Amino acid sequence: MPLLEIKNLHASIGDKPILKGINLTINPSEIHAIMGPNGSGKSTLSYVLAGRDGYEVTDGDICLDGQSVLEMEADERARAGLFLAFQYPVELPGVGGMSFLRGAVNARRIEARLDEIDQIAFVKTVREAAAKLGIKDDMLKRAVNVGFSGGEKKRYEILQMALLEPRMAILDETDSGLDVDALRIVSEGVNALKTDDIGVLVITHYQRLLDYIIPDHVHILADGKIVKSGDKTLALEVEKTGYGGFIDAA
Amino acid sequence: MPHDVISFERLTADASSRYAKNGWPSSKDEAWRFTNINAIRSAQFAPAEASLEPLSSPEDNVIHFINGVYQPIDNMSFNDGIHCENLSQNTALSSALAAAVPDQHKVADFALAYARDGLAITIDQPVAKPLQLIFDYSGDGVSSHPVLVFKIMPGASLTILEEHKGEGSGLSAPLMLFCLEEGARLNHARRLIEADSRYHLGLNLVKQQAKSVYHGDMVMAGGDISRSETQVSLSEADAQSYLNAVYLGRDKQIRDVTSRIDHDAPDCQSFQRIHGVLDNQAKAVFQGKVKVERYAQKTDGNQMSRTLILSRQAEANTKPELEIYADDVTCSHGATIGELDDDQLFYLMSRGISQDAARQMLIEAFLVDVVDELEEPQREWLVAPIEQWIKSRVTT
Ligand SMILES: Nc1ncnc2c1ncn2[C@@H]1O[C@H](COP(=O)(O)OP(=O)(O)O)[C@@H](O)[C@H]1O
Ligand SMILES: [Mg+2]
Questions:
Q1: Residue A114 CB contacts under 8 Å (≥ 6 apart), including other chains
Q2: Which residue CA neighbors atom 24 of ligand 1 most closely?
Q3: Could you tell me which of A3, A26, A1 has the C-alpha nearest to residue A215?
Q4: Measured between alpha carbons, how far is B158 from B156 in angstroms, rounded to an integer?
Q5: Which residues of A touch B366 (CB under 8 A)?
Q6: b vs e for A198-224, b when ≥16 Cβ sit within 10 Å of the residue's Cβ?
Q7: Residues of chain B with pLDDT under 70
């Protein structure tokens, strides 16, 4: 069974149609990349998948493990195994990082009828996962994303992904704002996820990230539609010719 | 600061005749424009009788008030540095209070008019163990009139944990004066957690001399109508005053945090942070006046009020007022009124946290922010009623 199936997805923000018929099937253990110019609807797609209020699906369906998620709130989708790494992670002043991470992990565990995680063991797990991503202890003690640099915020997204162990991970421009070292560390984090049955959707504007996270399939999004799909060589083509030719084709 | 010598008896008699003449504030009084106290005005209150309840077990540095009436001083015990007398026996402090009570202050007059006696508490060295003031109220239609005057001697310091709790439909009208002499420090934590059926109209007067520090931190969580007014006068150089407040309102409750800070000397600083959360049809006002006299150069006066509205029917009013006569000052004020942030809610929910839990986390973060930097035990002592309120709000 496909892990994620996006069928003829149309979505609007207010009265404005943004997604205009997207079809995409992601099977377990596949990495897909979506590339597209600014404003083509990449972040909108990620929000619609994650279940953000205010984004109305006007036609089509989204299925996770064969079940439609359209009636599910964002938190239910997350507990069902969907994870979105935000293009612009949100600052939460006053919300302590550790209690946030624990709250998120426990929400998933309760859903899976597991006991809440032991506090001391959890701190250790977080420290280890953070160390692998080059996240300093001091950052873990601060309020969520407050005072983090752009790169630190992106690493923190990947840390959350590592701790939440999603079934389906969507990464929205995780590469923007990262230097090459950070890019490598973050990519290792994503690649570490790639076990047998996890699906990954990497959204990016540049080809660069795909040198580190090798996609099985690449799709070009323009004006709310997938205008071309191919293998990883498509990304290189975009790099050479730009998006111009693809957009005309739409 | 020599005052006319005024006995406690005379002070209360004068207040009583002013109260008889002027009565209750109304919405025509500028300071009460946003605070409708018709419910209080139309109720009949009988001043509390002396307590008949047995005294609580004596612990050091604890003063228990039953409907505003305190136990005999002989039954109290204090650490070194705390000296407690009846205010009727300390004319220096009753005179100081007479001088400090603002003119034409109807609530102060009401508080004093029915006060039986007060406490005069002198602190003459640093005291480590906090002094607990526990105000327990009960009964319907009873008004409580506790009066306390503190004098913190030069270099002395004290932490006060002041709690107002209890049941019934009574009115609490505490009146307190804090005189901080040179280099004195007072940490004054207050939590107002009376039953939602009660009324609270409190007045705090703070007089600060050189290099003194007043740190006032309040959580106002209870009462149908709750009002807390604080007036600070910074009368000598290098004094600092912090007024932090958290107010929580729901149903048709009314919350009023009023402050006035007089910068009467150079190089003083005042910092005010007020965060409130209003649900249902609750109404609140924060009104803060900062007055900087001509000779109070290098004043640093900051005031920030933020209100979180959880319902479209809730109403927040903020009324900052700066009156500045000096030219070399740094004064700022700001006020925001808003709802929970959708981006923040979505971010939390996208991590699997339920909407209710996400809202709780954001409300708590917003409120705890005000008291987060406090030392223990004050911090935990003030966070507890905030958490309690948030929990009860979601489960009801
Ligand atoms: N909140 C919004 N309200 C109205 N239009 C929006 C909103 N967010 C995005 N859009 C529009 O939707 C389109 C796609 O935006 P977005 O999904 O952010 O693109 P991308 O991530 O590919 O750069 C753009 O035309 C943008 O202006
Ligand atoms: Mg985007």
A1: none
A2: A39
A3: A26
A4: 7
A5: 94
A6: bbbbbbbbebebbebbebebbbbbbeb
A7: 1-2, 51-57, 394-396
Our CA-based measurement puts residue B355 at a distance from the nearest CA of chain A, in whole angstroms, of 7
In three-state secondary structure terms, A210 is helix
Name which of A72, A75, A105 to mutate to probe chain B: the one with the most chain B Cβ atoms within 10 A of its Cβ: A75
Can you tell me which residue has the tokens 């003030």?
Answer: B382
What CA–CA distances, in Å, run from B315 to A43, A169, B194, B205, B231? Answer: 36, 42, 22, 28, 25
A116 in reach of chain B (CB within 8 A): no
- Pocket-testing residue among A13, A20, A35, ligand 1, by greatest number of atoms within 8 A of Cβ: A13
Distance, in Å, from the CA atom of A90 to the CA atom of A70, rounded to the nearest integer, reads: 24
For chain B, counts of helices (H) and of strands (E): 7, 22
A12 lines ligand 1 (CB under 6 A): no
Local structure of B345: helix, strand or coil: helix
pLDDT digit string (tens) for B253-284?
Answer: 999 999 999 999 999 999 999 999 999 999 99
CB atoms within 10 A of CB B124: 16
Q: Please report the pLDDT score of residue B53 as a whole number.
A: 64
Comparing CB atoms, the residue among A53, A75, A90 nearest residue B352 is A75
Shortest CA gap A87–chain B (Å)? 12
Domain residue limits at A54: 4-249
CA angle at residue B38 from B33 to B44, to 5 degrees?
A: 140
Taking alpha carbons only, the member of A96, A89, A55, A145 closest to residue B362 is A96
Kindly list the protein residues that place their beta carbon closer than 5 angstroms to ligand 2, a single-atom ion: A 42-43, 87
Verify whether ligand 1 is closer than 6 Å to residue A18 (CB atom). yes
Round to whole Å and give the CA distance between B205 and B99: 11
**Pick among B275, B277, B306, B351 to test the A interface (most A CBs inside 10 A):** B351
pLDDT at position B135:
96
Instruction: Evaluate the CA torsion angle A225, A228, A232, A234 in order and state its sign.
Output: negative
Q: How many Å apart are CA B122 and CA B321, to the nearest integer?
A: 34
Q: What is the DSSP string of B207-276?
A: EE-TT-EEEEEEEE---SEEEEEEEEEE-STT-EEEEEEEEEE-TT-EEEEEEEEEE-STT-EEEEEEEE
Cβ neighbors of B225 (< 8 A, separation 6 or more) are: B35, B37, B39, B40, B199, B200, B201, B253, B254, B256
Q: For residue A94, give the CATH number of its domain.
A: 3.40.50.300
In chain A, the number of structural domains is 1
Centre of ligand 1 from the C-alpha of residue A43, in Å = 7
At B396 the pLDDT is: 42
Of A50, A89, A95, the CB nearest to B361: A95
Task: Kindly give the confidence (pLDDT) of every residue in chain A, 250 residues in length, as a single tens digit, with 9 standing for 90 and above.
Answer: 899 999 999 999 999 999 999 999 999 999 999 999 999 999 999 999 999 999 999 999 999 999 999 999 999 999 999 999 999 999 999 999 999 999 999 998 888 888 888 889 999 999 999 998 889 999 999 999 999 998 899 999 999 999 999 999 999 998 887 888 878 887 887 887 766 689 999 999 888 888 888 899 999 999 999 999 999 999 888 888 888 877 765 4
For B233, counting Cβ atoms within 10 Å of its Cβ (0-12 exposed, 13-18 middle, 19+ buried), the class is buried
CA distance A52 to B347: 9
